[in-house]
Amino acid sequence: MSSTSTAEKLEANTYEDVNHRGHFANANQPPPPPPAIARPALPNGAALGLFSFGATCIGISLYTAGASGVAIPNAIVGLALFTGGVAQYTGGVVEFARGVTYTGSVFCIYSTFWLSYAAVLLPNTGIAAAYADDPKMLGNALGIYFVIWSIITVMFLLTALRKTLALVILLSLLSLTFLFFGITQFTHGNSSVAKATGVIGTITGFGAFYVGLGELLGADPNPPFLLPQGVFKH
């Protein structure tokens, strides 16, 4: 009667360990993984994005309404480029890094609105100069441009219907603001329409300040007070 020797058993066990476990049974165990390093939580970028948008929106709305006799909106270029553009885009990137797709998308895409609108106003781009022989065509082109942004805002509004009442009101006002900016361009700067556009846009800008202040206070561990946002119950 044959029996397997001790050496053969050891050899078989060693072969199995090498092929299935990757190391010998009597080898040293791998060291435990290092403990995870706690990383500080990313800051809330919503306040930055909302304040940036609100400031630029108020500026262009007041210029559109002809406040203080300002009829040419080109003074808004710097604000549109650096506040509505760069600062708001930064807020959107922070929100994406936090994993918040909605606010990241909102801030990044509206920063491109301000950057693209500033490009129209900058003389060196040649965009407005291309319509020098037909100013009405420029108005119609910008009218289409603003209507497109009104449609984009409506899509963001539909997504916000289960978030907060303050955000729903803000996006509703913003969609009207873009629509009225478009109408102002289609009517080639009609004074009555331009003033109505300026009023609605200014209210929208201050609405963005309100929501932004609410986000800033909510992110503070010891806020002096909180602003009601009207959070919907799910």
Automatic annotation (TrEMBL):
Keyword Protein biosynthesis (UniProt): no
Major localization listed first in the record, in broad terms: membrane
InterPro entries from the UniProt entry: AceTr, Gpr1/Fun34/SatP-like
Alphabetical list of PANTHER family matching this protein: ACCUMULATION OF DYADS PROTEIN 2-RELATED
Residues spanning the membrane: 46-65, 71-94, 106-131, 137-158, 165-187, 193-213
Species per Swiss-Prot/TrEMBL record: Armillaria gallica
The UniProt record lists the keyword Glycosyltransferase: no
Subcellular location: Membrane
Membrane topology value: Multi-pass membrane protein
Keyword annotations of the record: Membrane, Transmembrane, Transmembrane helix
Family: Belongs to the acetate uptake transporter (AceTr) (TC 2.A.96) family.
Gene Ontology annotations for the cellular component aspect, listed alphabetically: plasma membrane
Pfam families named in the record: Gpr1_Fun34_YaaH
Record's protein name: FUN34 transmembrane protein
Record GO terms (molecular function): acetate transmembrane transporter activity
